[in-house]
Fold this protein.
Amino acid sequence: MKRLIILLSVSLLLVVLIAGFAYFQFVAKPEMIKGFITAAGQPPVTVSTEPAKTETWVTKLPAIGTLRAVQGYDVAAEVGGIVRAINFDSGQFVKEGTLLVQLDDSIEQADLRSGLAQLKKAELELKRQQELLSRAATAKTNFDAALAARDSAAATVDRVRAVIAQKAITTAFGGRLGIRDVDLGQYLPAGTSMVTLQQLTPIYIDFPMPEQKLSAIAVGDAVEIAVDAEPGRIFEGKIESIDAKVNQATRNVLVRARTDNTEARLVPGMFANVNVISGAPQQVVTLPRTAVTYSLYGDSVYVVVPAAAAGEKPDAPSAGGTPGEAKAEETPAAAKPAEPQLVVDRRFVRVGEARGGRVSIVEGVKPGEQVVVAGQLKLQPQAHVRVDNSTPLTAPAQRPLE
């Protein structure tokens, strides 16, 4: 009986010890670790910042446009014929009235000589009938018939001359020719295009503008034009006209600007980025584009502020151990200067115009405030941060257009 009691007591003691160990290992210990981590706090997040700047910006209304020639058409013949002469090269600059292509007009030239002979005969007969009529030696009807024959012969000559003129294809205005699409000896049916002619100086830029911006633009406003064919170059122009109606499908109004294009670097059909200069220069607060976080709930930025200003009690400087402990034997001369404790304040902002790598902030940020420009993904409101601007962000090189 005594042995049984001793065995039960030892077993009960082992059970108590195992239960106590399990409780410590799986309940007490995790709570202690959680408490230590909570007491220690999260380590500060390293971010890059930049102060909000005040800049002078002129309001620019962006748009996407297409270049269009002031005058341009496809050169074609009004009548068919065989090409006998070609007097131009592809890409050539020509003046108004320049002969480009001569079609075979040998038959028309022969008809012209025949018509001139008939006209001469009719004029002589008319002159003779006029003399006879003056002496009352002929009837008035004979004179009228001679007059009608003379007019008919003259009309025949004019018609033949018009056909001959149609077979000499000339330019209607000066400009630059495109790629030649005609060969010597080729038969051209009427209306066949031979080459394009475009007047390049000046040149139009047509672009749509939302109807909400219609009150902000006017004829004579300056515009800036940029094209992919001339990277980094800005062409200047002015608004020449604004359409009299708004497109019901897009609710945009068509605007036409003009630039001199004295070097003929711009050609019709080019894609163009257009900025309309509207209003007087204004002072705006700007930030890098990377500082703004865009979301469905609103655009926001993180502003770095001292922990004390955010309502937190900063920890005492320490040389080791837990925060708040200090070695009594350490002298002030040997102590390292403590870094200021910083936190981030999330601000919802109203974003204005974007230009280059910067964006204007209408409200939400004041000039001089330090705003996080890199590292926002790791942040949450009132998070502790450490500022490191040793490696600022740089814009990547522009990729070549293929």
In short: The chain has a mean pLDDT of 86.
